Amino acid sequence: MAEITSLSTLSKTSVASTDFLLVANSSTKAAKKLQLQTLFPAVSTAGTSSETIYTSATLTNKNQIVFKGIKSGDTGLLTVATSSNNIELTVLEAGIDLSLCNNTTSGFLTGVDFSGTVTGECAVTNGGTGLSTISKGQLLYASADNVIAATTAMSTNGQLLIGNATNGYPSVATLTAGANMTIVNGAGTIELRASLASLAANLDTGSFNIDLNTNYISDDGSDRGLYVHTNGKVILNDSGSTLTTGDATGQLNIQGTTTTAITIGNSGAYQGAYDIKTTTSGSGTAGAKLQIYGGTAGGGNSAGGTLALFGGDATGSGNAGHVDLLAGDSPSGTPGSVLLRTHTAGGVETTAMTVDSNQDVSVEVGNLFVKAKPIYARASSTAAFIQYQGSEAETDDGTTALSAANILTGIIKCTPTAERSKATDTASNLISGLSLTADNDSFDFSLISLATDGTSDITLTGGTGVTLLGNMKVKSQDNVDDAGYAGVGRFRIRRTGASAVTMYRIA
User: Fold this and answer.
1) Pairing of strands 78-83, 86-91
2) Does a structural domain hold residue 177?
3) What domain range includes position 431?
4) Considering the entire predicted model, what is its pTM?
């Protein structure tokens, strides 16, 4: 066996797989060989696609491992130090640039503390404004350059952001008052006051009302036209007139200085007829009465106003319009009548004349006076006059005067047994009893003698104020052919003065 000093030197870098060491077992005294290469450590990196912590160049020395050093690539972000045989890596939070970080999937940012000082400007693309400062009263908007910009400061009361189609971004401005509008700007307030001095279009109030506040609706803004009183009554008042609310006695009141108060119709859209009527009543309820009054005198000894109905005037050879008084019709009941009514003495409303549904005309109260023209009876198939005749009066077989009441019956009979003389009533009594209210009023009556002896005649004499004209003797009846006395006389009493009459023998 060779001595060790005589052996050649084997460097560790030249160790091959065929180099062995002799190993003896002290217990078994057995000798074994140990492959020399197994004494050298094997170095590898367990990570995938990771950086090794050793230098590969030192691995040729077999038993020597050289580790890489650890240092910070950005000392402002990360520091490296050794403490108690530990390598300490310290991250400096202040040095982290969040603009270089991607938080899409990691979600490492849950909040930002703005209590500290923030410097610089955050770009719009990073969620900022891109502005370093913003002044009091300014608002942010998207500018024409598609960046965030600040408006001018809103330093005036009533300023708003108002869209501007010309430049594409809003402008700071105040509202401009148009027609019928006043704008009052205050600190944080805008008051719009409408005046409606004029309208540019139709006014549609929808379902709401208009409060006139006791003022007019007029053509020129003056105090005339349509006025609604505080009591809800409506007044129509023309130019130059004085409003009199105390005279607003109805729901609609027409005041003014123009004689024609109401005109119905439009010549540009003319209709053949116009109606004024009350509304149709509900079932089972009588229709409302329509009443038209002339004016009542205001006091003193003034006359009341006349109610006049006029038909329309014609032109050229056209016929003038009629005044029609037409009573209402009834399907199965009695048609209405036309009534002419007046107040009698004492203020009693009385029907003076009636035209009923048979067209019969009745003078209910009072007299019928025909003053200027005659009465024509032109019935061709009926009696011209039907006159009321009550029971005849009778005077005694003596000298009792013929009273006005006897004469008023139209027929007086008498049965004398001898020749009698009878005076008439006084002229005053005849005038009042026969209703001879005006000079030349007259009344006719007959005196019939029922005596048949041919000798018992009746001779009339005049009472006070009575003038007799003609033969006043009524012969008794005599049927002898040569006599021919009918025993009747026909007389007419005519008023000639306030207390004077003339009595005529007319037949």
Assistant:
1) antiparallel
2) yes
3) 393-505
4) 0.55
